[in-house]
Fold:
Amino acid sequence: MSEGDTLFSKIIRREIPADIVYEDDRALAFRDINPQAPTHILIIPKHPIPKLADAQPEDSDLLGHLLLIVAKVAQQENLSDYRVVANNGAGAGQSVFHLHLHLLGGRPLQWPPG
Ligand code: 5GP
Structure:
């Protein structure tokens, strides 16, 4: 693996199988392997940014695009109420250092999260 290459890069390259629910030229969405809700989908940029704190001003279009994909996929999944999470850093629960948004829905979601 080259620098910045994570298992999500392998999913993008189809080297690891995933249940892909959406794809375009800049982004991919696939079901989480360890779902925390009936619907748990990860939305990732194809361009690898390790975490949100590493995003640059030139990434603003891409970040907006990812949020619009969240809404599109949620609609595709017939979710009206859902949560979007980005864990930034190991202390916040980030385990894969390729920026991703979690889309969680299909059950009541408590606040605050753990
Ligand atoms: P993080 O903890 O970094 O915010 O989220 C990483 C997510 O990736 C976790 O929810 C974990 O279950 C998911 N994950 C880890 N490995 C794989 C995999 O090989 N395939 C899929 N589909 N999800 C994975």
About this structure: The radius of gyration is 14 Å.
